[in-house]
Sequence to fold (301 residues):
Amino acid sequence: MNMFDCVIVGGGSAGLSASLTLGRARRKIAVFDDGTNRNRVTQQSHGYLTRDGITPQAFKETGLKELNKYPSISYFHSTITEIINKCSGEYFIVKTSDGQEFYAEKLMLATGIQEEFSIPSVREFYGQSLFSCPYCDGWELRDQPIIIIAEKDEHVMHMVKLVYNWTNDVAVLTNGVELSKETVQKLQKRNIIIKSEYIKNLIGQNGDLKKIEFESGEIMIRSGGFVVPTYYRPHQFVEQLACQVDKDGTVVTDGAGRTTTRNVYIAGETQKLGATSLIIAAADGQKAAFSVNHDLVMERF
Fold:
């Protein structure tokens, strides 16, 4: 049996960071990535010190180049279809879509999350003129007239408060949802436009938003903004491995990446079921890698 010390599922910022840390600790690591990381649609990644403005692909290529220096790290561009927990976490069997099997003492989930949008045409502009994170892209939209697409009071107010420091020319689009009187009053005090009509279509070219068409036929001219997605885990590994999950969908950990399932660790957006930044995900990956290495040390010394 070809046994790895740890299999890392996911090659985004969290997974690559964990791989680097464990590779430098001389652990035998296999990291699997199928290229579906959430930020692949983004033109530039921001807020990562020394890498501000880098493209997601360049970021990944730089990370993989660094991993190549460590001979105990194996990288596989492959999709994992099944993970089998053997003997209550004694070891794991990882199966891929091309029929291969790998074995590991420890398992780290870093598969990230994906977005869902109630308006399908958002996808045409997402990552280029419509974004989900003001910290990542608010600077680029500073002082511009923008839209916020959100369908819950709490999401509207959270996003409006965040973006208001970058631009106060804001139109809130709720896609058919009526906001509470309290929310409406707060927005009107700031001269924020509120449109509760259903959105028929978002119109533009090559990822650049030009205008919004409502069901009534009215047209609003806006060239960018923010949208609040619904997030989900693209795989069922958390459930299949019986990791405990809070009522809000967050995977329960000890604060250092260990889940409630023996020898299963988790890092990045996979754990939180919510968006975060590259630099925070990388820190989560390193922290979880510390836990993996610590546990291996304690078990083997």
User: Anything to note?
Assistant: The two ends are 22 Å apart (CA to CA). Helices lie at 13-24, 56-67, 134-137, 153-163, 181-189, 237-240, 269-272, 278-300. The longest strand covers residues 101-109. The longest helix spans residues 278-300.
